[in-house]
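Request: Mind sharing a record?
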Amino acid sequence: MDPQATWDQLQEALRIGDREAVCELAQALLDWLGCGGFPPGTAAGRPDEIARQRAAVTRFCRLALQPAAES
């Protein structure tokens, strides 16, 4: 897996509203991180702050997997 490519695809899926892709990509990243994989780079911290990157991506993916709020 390329977590950076998956992260970038997840961002794009969110931007265009592709809920199916969002769920698939977010779960793939959570599975990858859960198996000890390295996190993608995010704006949440410096590239050498692996723990902060991992926490930010995990939080983001969990939020992305939550059902959309009903209006």
Observations:
- Residues 19-34 form the longest helix (16 residues).
- Residues 3-65 form one domain.
